[in-house]
Amino acid sequence: MKWIKLIAASAALMVMGCSGGVTKETTLPQTTPQETTESKSGEFKVALLTPGPVSDAGWSALAYDGLLAVEKDLGAKISHQEATGPKIRDAMRTYAQDGYSVIFGHGFEYNAPGVELAKDFPNTVFISSSGGETAPNAGALRFYLERSFYLAGMLAAELSKTGKLAMIGGPDVPSIRSTFKGFAAGAKAARPDIIVSEVFTGKDSDIAAAHQATLSAIDAGADFVIHQANAAAQGVFDAAKERGILAFGANANQNDNASGVVLASAVIIVKPVFIDLARQVKEGKYKGSVVLAGSVDLVINPKLASRIPAAIQAKLDQAKADIESGKIVVPKDEF
Rounded to an integer, what distance in angstroms lies between the CA atom of residue 282 and that of residue 22? Predict the structure, then answer.
């Protein structure tokens, strides 16, 4: 089911213009080399902040895999910590003071703090996963995950018997809302009369809240659910198992979840993009921007593939081809 592949060395990414909400296709910025951001000790130090534990088998875990890839490929000294709310600025400031060259903040909530602190630490680059604010040494990396969610929505609508689907989110932030719009658009493209509901628990790691929200959605008629709940995803899967329905994984490949209910996963491919951006920083070539990476995939769980009739699989394959060719433009919010 591989359908969108990113080769980091080619830098074939798209960069969203940050003024006027205009998006344009280009390559990653090639700028006049600046002074290298390596620390005075000569070490290239890279840090990662995540909203939840890297053991979540999802959003935070895939970012940590990207960090490990940077360590392996670029010989970087790495560090990671969880940081939310007021702790975000404190963690960023401490890393910058300690001479870290790059600080990846894995989420929309890290964008504004990074841009704010960038002016005080010109030798540190702040990069968030999502967000639209930039500075000369701060920017964002945005994955076009809406495309995978669109296909998941199509598949869910085609298979639904109740005509109702549900989306379970943690924090109500623009990046999550945008992926949910992609899911709803795909569902309605396949079945215009489908009803798609969304619920936000407001929390990243509250498994009980996600579990209860999912049970409520299923009891209201939803027979397929997708999540953007980070570490709380297990609550979604457990509820789906209790009620005997199927679910979709998100961000990382969650098809092997012990619940056995994950039909497919909307996957982000992080490693090559983290490596490419970190390399730009190491070589003094980074310029603050918002990079839109199409490195996503919808991976069907081979253990449940028999649940998908051949005719529906053919529709998915055609939709993927149409997305790649530009015939289908999956909606996404600009933020």
Answer: 29
> From CA 238, how far away is CA 247, in angstroms rounded?
10
Domains contained in the chain, CATH given:
8-143+270-294 (3.40.50.2300), 146-268+304-325 (3.40.50.2300)
76-119 pLDDT, tens per residue? 999 999 999 999 999 999 999 999 999 999 999 999 999 999 99
Q: Which amino acid would we find at residue 264? A: A
Tens digit of pLDDT for each residue in 263-273? 999 998 889 99
H/E segment holding residue 175: helix 174-190
Cα distance between residue 319 and residue 315, in whole Å: 6
Distances (CA, A) of 50 to 95, 187, 205, 277: 14, 31, 12, 18
- Report yes or no: 189 and 154 within 8 Å, Cβ to Cβ: yes
Cα–Cα distances in angstroms (integers) from residue 17 to residues 27, 61, 179, 190, 334, in the given order:
12, 29, 20, 32, 10
The per-residue pLDDT of the chain, averaged, comes to: 88
